[in-house]
Amino acid sequence: MPLSEHEQRLLEQLEKQLHEDDPKFANSMGSDPIRAWSTRHIIVGVLGTIAGVLLLLVGVSLQNIFLGVLGFVVMGAGVYFATLRRVSGRKLKSGKPGKPKSSFMNNLEERWDERRRGDD
To answer: pTM for the complete prediction?
Structure first.
């Protein structure tokens, strides 16, 4: 089910705040919009993986350890290359200039306090 416009704006705001507050964690989670999948990397990686599997099978059938190990290395390199992400030219938009930023947790705490005050 697609998100409403309001939910999408909230999600984008949360992502932006997370990147501002803890960029290392945000990058490790892989939700960085600056990085994108590359179709070329996927195709070349899959072809490399297939070539590695074929080399491995030929090495096993000929009982050639060197060819089998080479096939395994090529196969691993193909998988690694297929999972690489490229860096696009887009940058995150910064918030309103001049406005002091409050941290993500402070915003959540304020919302929580407002909800609790509303229940009393």
So the answer is: 0.47
Q: 8-27: per-residue pLDDT in tens?
A: 888 888 888 888 887 777 77
- DSSP codes of every residue in the chain: -PPPHHHHHHHHHHHHHHHHH-HHHHHHHT--TTEEE-HHHHHHHHHHHHHHHHHHHHHHHTT-HHHHHHHHHHHHHHHHHHT-EEEPS--PPP--TTSPPPPHHHHHHHHHHHHHHHH-
CB 41 within 8 A of CB 81: yes
Q: What are the residues whose beta carbons fall under 8 Å from the beta carbon of 38, sequence distance 6 or more?
A: 84, 85, 86
Query: Which among 68, 73, 49 has a CA at the least distance from the CA of 58?
Result: 68
